[in-house]
Amino acid sequence: MKYAFIKSQRKYHALTPLCLVLNVSTSGYYDWLDRPPSTTERSKQRLLTKIRCFHHASRQTYGSPRIHKDLLAVDECVSVNRVARLMRAENIQSKMAKRFVITTYSKNTLAPAPDRLKRAFRTAAPNRAWVSDTTFIRTRQGWLYLAMMLDLYSRQIIGWAMSERNNAKLVIDALQMALARRAIEKPIIVHSDQGSTYASNDYQCLLKQNGLLPSMSRKGECYDNAVAESFFGTL
Fold this sequence. Notes:
Blueprint: H1 2-9, H2 15-22, H3 26-34, H4 39-57, H5 64-73, H6 80-89, E1 129-139, E2 142-151, E3 156-163, H7 168-181, E4 188-192, H8 196-199, H9 201-209, E5 212-216, H10 226-234
Helix pairs in contact: 4-5, 5-6
């Protein structure tokens, strides 16, 4: 352990003072350097190589629990505690940036649509009720807004759109994709929150032109749109 410490500090301090402080000889240190690594050290380095590979593959977002699962998947018999110790000693850390971004601006929504859905999250057939929501996600091109339209019957995403801006065009594009993919025979409830994008005149006109029934969650009641929230949680 003393020699390992000396080796780690050589770039900061001269060898002789380090050996004097730790009461070891410089010749003993050089003898230690010439020794082949022990079985334990080889095992540690092999494990660290795999940890670094999995950490890099995750874009440095994985912590020790998920790295441990990856190691088990390649038949590496190791405890999660050892993985955590090695990662801590080597300063291998999860660098996931958790950002809170407001995607619902409802201050200016003076006359929201009624809650026609009333948390009836199961339907007997397709195209009875759709739910929509917007979130902010990290992509390879940077942070983008994502709007989606989901059919409650199958839980299938039938329309979606992405943009650098959270505006009416974003949710309209998602709705238009859903309309292009589905034939509407009966009025469909289209549920969302009270955000200004969903309350915009252009979006509401598009609903009316296609015989769709607007529905909005009550203010502050996130469970009124729980299926959309759940999908984004999984995503």
